[in-house]
Amino acid sequence: MSRVTIRELLWGSDLPDQETFDVILGADLTYDFDDLPILISTLRNVSHATSRVYIAYGVERAATETFLEMAREHFEVTSVPDSSIRQNENTYTINVAMMQKKS
């Protein structure tokens, strides 16, 4: 039987016992360029080799491209097609990046 654990995490803080997660979800995290290094560091610390990290973002976020470039240094980054999350043609399109640690 699978177990789901939800945790609040302040970027840059440590989790007890170096805890890692199989699936990590994040949304609207790429607003501020200054926050990107600590965000990447935190994602690296809470993920393991087979973790899947999903980051949802709007295309207008200024720091998104920089975040994805920084993430590619440590993660394989692929796009989840927006058609899989668009509800209808009037709905705001959200892009999702799926990331997995590089070996």
Verbal overview:
The structure is a single chain. By secondary structure, the chain is α+β, with helices and mostly antiparallel strands. Helices cover 18% and strands 30% of the residues. It has helices at residues 36-46, 64-71, and strands at residues 21-27, 47-57, 75-80, 95-101. The chain has a four-stranded mixed sheet with strand order 1-2-4-3. Helix 1 (36-46) links the parallel strand 1 (21-27) and strand 2. It is globular and about 45 Å long. The termini are far apart.
Please give the count of helices.
Answer: 2
Q: Tell me, rounded to a whole number, the average pLDDT.
A: 84
Please mark out the parts with pLDDT under 50 across 5 or more consecutive residues, or reply none: none
Structural class: alpha+beta
Quick summary:
This protein is α+β, with helices and mostly antiparallel strands. The chain has helices at residues 36-46, 64-71; strands spanning 21-27, 47-57, 75-80, 95-101. It is built from 2 helices and 4 strands, in the order βαβαββ.
Topology record:
Layout: E1 21-27, H1 36-46, E2 47-57, H2 64-71, E3 75-80, E4 95-101
Parallel strand pairs: 1-2
Antiparallel strand pairs: 2-4, 3-4
Brief descriptors of the model:
alpha+beta
